[in-house]
Design brief:
- By secondary structure, this protein is of the alpha/beta class.
- It is built from 23 helices and 16 strands.
- The chain has three domains: about 120 residues, Glucose Oxidase, domain 1 (3-Layer(bba) Sandwich); about 110 residues, Enzyme I, Chain A, domain 2, CATH 1.10.274.10; about 325 residues, TIM Barrel (Alpha-Beta Barrel).
- It is about 50% helix and about 15% strand.
- Helix 14 crosses helix 15.
- Bound molecules: phosphoenolpyruvate and magnesium ion.
């Protein structure tokens, strides 16, 4: 390859790696598709069952290794693989191809993997797309046993450590690598919620993905690379100067990581003694250990959609209860705010067969679905209520726009409680119930809503979208999506004032809560807690420890007097002292 160049992909695991490329060979199968004799079917079925048995045994061993090496939660990734081997739909397909078309076990398995992987790949949802990798992964494992070949222990270059480069990386492939030998990972395909990405984050390995179609020439073994997992960039054949720059950046990054880890146990209090609880948002319970290790005061938003999106059928009450209970127990008394299903809009669930809508963000979604499909809603509420025995569990409803909706939700909650009473199940009858404030109508009637619930959590992601009429998914108008718009700031103030007057608690759980720049707003508004993504927590805490609540209150007054989002942003950037009084 010629002189150096840089590419932009997606950062899937933070950190910087500098090293030589090692190209992981793709799993390629050459399986002759010949019909078999009817008399051989019994033998083929025996081979299949033996292959499944051997694959399961191997997965159990990997699970055990990963649990010891990385963590129990990461090891549970392989439960999904075990479940595929038990999945009746997947296995029926294999059996039918064998019985009806007289094909060997390996041909039937290969055809079934291809069919299911394609099906998942074609889905709109990124999370579901990445499940195609899991199907291919477990299918390849099974094929390996059926064919008696073992390509996954790829040859390792003589000089580790290296940067692993692959078209896509399966969790199994990653599990077979020695973390000491892997400096970083680059893949052409994949997404940030893929299991390989989750494992890389837990292992602390920088990972950039999504380079498909961006490389003019393929990478070669031994190419010098720099990968920046925060920025999502890959530098190929960097010159000495760039290598030196990144070496310096890497040591600064590691030093900052140490400094941040050192404040995990420090109380979240400003210089002038004001406490602001820092909680985390989670879209699965995978990162719960990491959240607790970084000193989170609890989970301020558990997005429960993942339980529905991970399954090929509606999750049962017991399945949901199991997830909520595990999270509640792990948090050991710290709050766990479980948001009821917020599906629709940008998130879809296949088995609900939601209609395509022209205005999905304004359509059949979130609490609207729950109040329409009270069967689903009751099941979820019962699972949450049962989990309330195991920790400090709270319920939160998304997308509330009216008092009627809160009251209707309360009726369903009461019904769920009665059903549990009848079944002799116990739960916390005084469970706290709150709502997300993310629709402008809810802001306008915040005083009325505050009389109906015990807490508010402001969802700035949707509030900004609805307040400014800017679709949060539309890149063409992304520049108009301004969380610092004065309209948003006024809405925050109205909501917090209403909550305070009625004596209920209020927090913020949109992305803005994890933006260090916005911290003076929360301190100035006198909010007691904010909830953000796990990686944002310690940087925000560092800022908090160096902040003053009194200066923030002044800054907020000035921000409220600003006329544009740009002015508000500039004011916050410059800090309280450095900026002249904004014009009123
Ligand atoms: C929000 O809208 O701010 C929010 C936290 O919810 P989500 O991003 O899941 O819509
Ligand atoms: Mg929302």
């Amino acid at each position: 390859m010629g002189s150096g160049f840089s590419l932009n992909g997606i950062g899937a695991s933070p950190g910087i790696a500098i090293g030589k490329a090692f190209l992981l060979p793709a799993w390629e199968w050459n399986i002759p598709d010949e019909a078999i004799d009817a008399n051989d079917l019994t033998f083929e079925f025996e081979k299949l069952f033996e292959g499944i048995r051997a694959s399961k045994l191997e997965l159990e061993l990997i699970k055990q290794d990963i649990s010891e090496m990385i963590g129990k939660q990461e090891s549970e990734i392989f439960d999904a693989h075990l479940a595929i081997l038990d999945d009746p739909i997947f296995m029926n397909e294999v059996h039918n191809i064998m019985k009806r078309q007289y094909k060997s076990a390996e041909v039937a398995v290969k055809e079934t993997i291809d069919k299911f992987a394609l099906m998942f790949d074609l889905l709109d949802d990124n999370y579901m797309k990445e499940r195609a990798t899991d199907i291919k992964d477990v299918g390849n494992r099974l094929l390996k046993h059926l064919l008696g070949v073992f390509p996954e222990t790829a040859p390792v270059p003589d000089e580790p450590p290296f940067i692993v480069c692959a078209k896509e990386l399966s969790p199994s492939q990653l599990s077979h690598m020695n973390p000491q030998q892997v400096l970083g990972i680059v893949t052409m395909l994949g997404g940030t919620t893929s299991h390989a990405a989750i494992m890389a984050r837990a292992m602390g390995i920088p990972f950039v993905l999504g380079l498909e179609g961006k490389l003019a020439e393929p990478l070669e073994n031994g190419d010098l690379l720099i990968i920046d997992g925060d920025a999502g960039t890959v530098h190929i054949h960097p010159d000495d100067k760039l290598v030196e720059t990144y070496k310096a950046r890497k040591s600064e990054w590691l030093a900052e990581k140490d400094r941040l880890n050192a404040i995990a146990g420090v109380p979240p209090v400003t210089e002038d003694g004001v406490r602001l609880e820092l909680l985390v948002n989670m879209s699965s319970i995978q990162d719960l250990d990491a959240a607790i290790a970084s000193g989170a005061a609890g989970v301020g938003l558990l997005r429960t959609e993942f339980i529905y999106m991970e399954n090929s059928a509606l999750p049962t009450e017991d399945e949901q209860f199991d997830v909520y209970r595990r999270a509640a127990e792990k948090l050991g008394g710290r709050p766990l705010v479980i948001r009821t299903l917020d599906i629709g809009g940008d998130k879809n669930v296949d088995f609900l067969a939601l209609p395509r809508e022209d205005n999905a963000a304004l359509g059949y979604r979130a609490i609207r679905i729950s109040l329409d499909r009270t069967d689903l809603f009751r099941t979820q509420l019962k699972a949450i209520l049962r989990a309330s025995r195991y920790g400090n569990v709270k319920i939160m409803y998304p997308m509330i726009a009216s008092v009627e909706e809160v009251r209707a939700a309360r009726d369903v909650l009461r019904m769920a409680m009665r059903e549990l009473d009848d079944a002799g199940e116990t739960y916390n009858a005084d469970i706290e119930v709150g709502i997300m404030i993310e629709v402008p109508a809810a802001v306008a009637i915040a005083d009325l809503l505050a009389e109906e619930v015990q807490f508010f959590s402001i969802g700035t992601n949707d509030l900004v979208q609805y307040a400014l009429a800017v679709d949060r998914m539309n890149e063409a108008i992304a520049h108009l999506y301004d969380p610092y718009h004065p309209a948003v700031l006024r809405m925050l103030k109205t909501t917090v004032d209403a909550a305070k007057r009625r004596g209920i608690s209020v927090s913020v759980c949109g992305e803005l809560a994890g933006d260090r720049l916005a911290l003076p707003l929360w301190l100035g508004l006198g909010i007691g807690e904010i909830s953000m993504s796990v990686p944002a927590l310690l940087p925000v805490k560092k800022e908090l420890l160096a902040s003053r609540a009194d200066a923030s209150a002044e800054l907020l007054q000035r921000a409220l007097a600003c006329r544009t989002g740009a002015e508000i942003k500039a004011l916050l950037q410059a800090g309280c002292a450095a900026i002249p009084q904004a014009e009123a």
